[in-house]
Amino acid sequence: MPTTPSPHAARRSERSRRAIFDASLALVGEVGYPRLTIEGIASRAGVGKQTIYRWWPSKAAVLLDAFTEGVESYGEGLPDTGDLAADLKYVLRATCDEFNDPAFQAPYRALAAAGAADEELSRAFVARLLEPGFAVYEARLRAARDAGEIAPDADPRIVTEMLLSPFSQRWLMRTGELTHAYTDTLVDLVLRAVRPHD
């Protein structure tokens, strides 16, 4: 007996998986996470719910896989033009645009909220989405520190948190708009705090 699926079966499985991902992302935007169900995803995707349960243990697991597959990788990291402020502003402006996109907002907010009550989901969310993002900021800041653009005692991790935590808090709690002016100001204030001391 063959131990791997036939090419036809593999294509069918990939089509089903893609349909499930598309359905979960669409539905969470339409009905919200609390009303999202495996049954609803299965119906929208045109598959049996047993197919979903064969691959994922919960709706959160489905949504996490669907969302993280669609998020672009950080590739080679943040740009390094030699101007740290310009590079950080460029990336945070792009991030601002992404977080203001309704197609991005719904699943991200759903996963953040679900993760607050589900430690396993939270750990997976952090490992697969947040940590890779933090890592590229830390690498760019480490290079800036080596080049003398920020103080030698500036911890790249803490500087990254100084940049991204207020951004995330404002967006998640809706305490204000996310705009390019806001992200530019954030970069300016953080870099003012960590520039080399006289």
Automatic annotation (TrEMBL):
Q: Which GO terms describe its molecular function?
A: DNA-binding transcription factor activity; transcription cis-regulatory region binding
What residues are annotated to bind DNA? 37-56
Q: Keywords in UniProt for this one?
A: DNA-binding, Transcription, Transcription regulation
Domain HTH tetR-type spans what residues? 14-74
Gene3D superfamilies documented for this protein: Homeodomain-like (1.10.10.60), Tetracycline Repressor, domain 2 (1.10.357.10)
- One Pfam match, given by its short name, reads TetR_N
PROSITE patterns cross-referenced by the UniProt entry: HTH_TETR_2
Q: Which PANTHER family match?
A: HTH-TYPE TRANSCRIPTIONAL REGULATOR RUTR (PTHR30055), TETR-FAMILY TRANSCRIPTIONAL REGULATOR (PTHR30055:SF148)
Task: State the protein's name.
Answer: TetR/AcrR family transcriptional regulator
Source organism of the structure: Streptomyces benahoarensis
